[in-house]
Amino acid sequence: MPDATDVPTPAAAPARPERDRPWVMRTYAGHSSAAASNALYRRNLAKGQTGLSVAFDLPTQTGYDPDHVLARGEVGKVGVPISHIGDMRQLFEEIPLGEMNTSMTINAVAMYLLAMYQVAAEEQAEASGEDPADVVARLAGTTQNDIIKEYLSRGTYVFPPGPSMRLITDMVNYTVTTIPKWNPINICSYHLQEAGATPVQEIAYAMSTAIAVLDAVRDSGVVAPEDFGTVVARISFFVNAGVRFVEEMCKMRAFVQLWDELTRERYGVEDARQRRFRYGVQVNSLGLTEAQPENNVQRILLEMLAVTLSKDARARAVQLPAWNEALGLPRPWDQQWSLRMQQVLAYETDLLEHEDLFAGSRVVEGKVAELVEGARAEMARVAELGGAVAAVESGYMKSALVASHALRRQRIEDGQEVVVGVNRFESTEPNPLTADLDSAIQTVDAGVEAAAAQAVRSWREERDADAERGPRAAAALERLRAAAGTDENLMEASLECARAGITVGEWAQALRDVFGEFRAPTGVSGSVGAADGGSAELVAVREAVRGTEAELGERLRILVGKPGLDGHSNGAEQIAVRARDAGFEVIYQGIRLTPEQIVSAAVAEDVHLVGISILSGSHMELVPDVLDGLRDAGAGDIPVIVGGIIPESDAAALKALGVAEVFTPKDFGLNEIMARFVEVIRASRELPAGQAQPV
C-alpha cells in the first residue's frame, strides 16, 4: 500500500474542463482540373480537414467556358475549372455531399454552381439508394454570392447591380425552404479589407450590404414576416483578420453587437439564436510578403488568434493561407502546414476550455465602442446615398476604399507602419525554403488549358448531337431566357439547365442576353492622393516628369492595363493614383480587357508607357500577346512594364521577350516605381539617362 503522502492532492492533477467544439477547418483549394482537385480534397480530408473550401478558376467565376477568348491564360490557375455537371460530378467523386460542409467562393454565377452542386448530390443519392430530397435537405455549406463587394474589390461581377441582386434574392428564397442548412450568401468584408478598408469601413460596408440583401428578400414578399428569422439565421459573413490582432478581435465583437441590434430592431427577429453573428474567416493574404516569406507563418498564426481567442465572437469556420502565397500557388504540403496550425491551436492548447477571455475588459469594451460608433456613422452615410447598391453605382464606396488603401501605402513607404523584412529589418540569412524557388510553389501544367478547352467543346458537341440531350439543352436555355424576363425565381430553370448539361458559359451568356453586362467604377478619379505635395521623393519624381515633358514637348501619358479575367485591381489602382500624383496623365480603363483592347487604347492615346498588372499567373500567356500586338500595330517602341506575382524565372523570360521592367510585391516603394517609369520612358525616347532637365 502506498503511503498517503505519496498521493497527489486534487489540485496537483486538476480535472480538464469540457471543451467547446472546434470551428470548421478548411483550406482554400482547387487547381488544374476537377480530377486533380478531387484528389487534393480527399487527401486534405484524410489529414483532418473538416470542411471543403472550393476555389474556382477565373473563367468559371466570370461565366466563361475554357475555350472563350477571355479565358486565355486563366484556366485552372487560381482554382478549378468547372464548366458543367460532368465536371461537378468528378470534383466530388467519392465525397458524400450529404455529409460534407462545403464553402464555394463563387459570386456572379453562384446560382448555377449551387444548381450543379444540388444535382450532383441528387445523383449521389440515387446511386446509393437514398431519397434525393432527403439528401438535398441535409446539404450544408455556403455560396459566397456577395456581388456588391465584387464591384468594389475582386472584380468577378458579370451583370448590373439590379439583376445581380435579383439572383441573390432568388437563391435566398429558394434555399431557405429547400436547402435549409445552406448559407445562400456569405457577405464578405474580407475583400473590402484587402481593397483598403479600415476596420470601420469593413464593418459599415458589410452591414450595409446585409441591409441591401435582407431588404430585397423582405420586399420580395416570398417569406412571411413571422418566418423572416429563418432567413436571417442563414446569412453568414466572411471576414478578414489582419495582424493587428487586438483591433481585429475587437472588430469581431463590434460586428456581433451591430448584427444583433440590426436584426432585432430593423427586422424584428426575437430568437437570439437566429440573430447570432455567424462568420467564417480567412486571415489576411494582403499582408503576406514576398520578402522574407518565412515571416508569413507567424503573421498567419497571430491573425488566426484574432478570430479564435474571443469565445463570444469566435469564427465558425477558419481557412488559412499558406506561407508562400505571395510567391505563387501553394503546394499540398504548404496547405497541410496551415491546417496543422489550426489543429494545434484547437486540440493541443486549452483555448476551447474557457469562457470568453475578454468579458469585462475596459480596454476591449472601449475599442469596441469606438468601432461601433464609427461604423454607425459610415452606415448612415451609405444610407443617405440610397444604400449599398447606390453607393456602388455612384462610385462612393470604391473611391473611399482606394483612398484608404493609398494612405496605407504611404504609411508603409514613409516607415510609419512597419512591415518586418520589407521596410525594416531587411537583412536576412539565405532562406532554405526558397533556395529553389521553382520547386517552392506549385505550377499548373501548361497543357491544362488546351485540355479543358477541348473537353468543353467535346461536351457541347456530343450533347447537341444526341437525339434526346440536344433538344433538352436547347429548351432549358430558352426557358432560362424566358424566365429571366419575368419575376419568376430562376433556381428551377437553372436546375433544369444543370440536368440538361448546359455549360457555365452558356448559362451566363443566356442571362447576359437579358440582363446585359456592367463595368464598375474604378474609384481612381475620385480618390484622395498627394497631387499638391507629398514626400521629397515624390516631389523629385514630379520634377523629373515635368523636365522630361519639357524635353519632349508633350505631356507624359501612361496606360495602366489589366488583361484577362484577374479582377484584383488594388495594385493597378494604386499605381494609377500615384502616377497621377507624380504628374503623369493616366489612362486606366479598369479590369477584364483583352490584349487587343489594351493595344488599341495604347495606340489611340499615343502613350509613352504601358503598365500591365496581372496577379492570377497568366502573365506568360497575356503579356506576349500585348507585346506582339504593339509590334503588329507599328507601336513596338512603346515600352511595357509588368507587375504581379511573378517568379524570378518568369521575370527573366518576360524581359528576354522585350518587357522593360518587372515589379513584384517586394517592390512596395511606389515613388521608386514612378522614378523607374521616367527612366524607362527616357531610354525609349533616347533621352540622356539620369535626372531630367529642370523646367
Q: What do you see in this structure?
A:
With 695 residues, the protein is α/β, with parallel strands linked by helices. It is globular and about 85 Å long. The longest helix is centred in the middle third of the chain and has 23 residues, at 362-384. Helix content is 49%, strand content 9%. The chain has 27 helices and 15 strands. Helix 12 (295-306) links the parallel strand 9 and strand 10 (317-319). The protein folds into 2 domains: 24-421, Methylmalonyl-CoA mutase (TIM Barrel, Alpha-Beta Barrel); 536-685, 3-Layer(aba) Sandwich (Rossmann fold). GO terms for molecular function: cobalamin binding; metal ion binding; methylmalonyl-CoA mutase activity.
Tags for this model:
five-stranded parallel β-sheet; 15 strands; alpha/beta; 27 helices; Rossmann fold; 695 residues; TIM Barrel; globular
Count of discrete domains? 2
The first-level CATH class name of the largest domain: Alpha Beta
Adjacency order of strands in the biggest sheet? 1-10-9-8-7
Which shape, going by the Cα principal axes? globular
Overall SS class: alpha/beta
Would you tell me which CATH topology of the largest domain applies? TIM Barrel
The largest pleated sheet is described as: 5 strands, parallel
Distance from first to last alpha carbon: 99 Å
Radius of gyration (CA) equals 26 Å
Unreliable spans are none
| Percent of sequence in beta strands | 5-15%
CATH superfamily of the largest domain: Methylmalonyl-CoA mutase
Helix content estimate: 40-55%
Protein name: Protein meaA
GO molecular function, one term: methylmalonyl-CoA mutase activity
Domain B12-binding: 555-684
Cofactor: adenosylcob(III)alamin
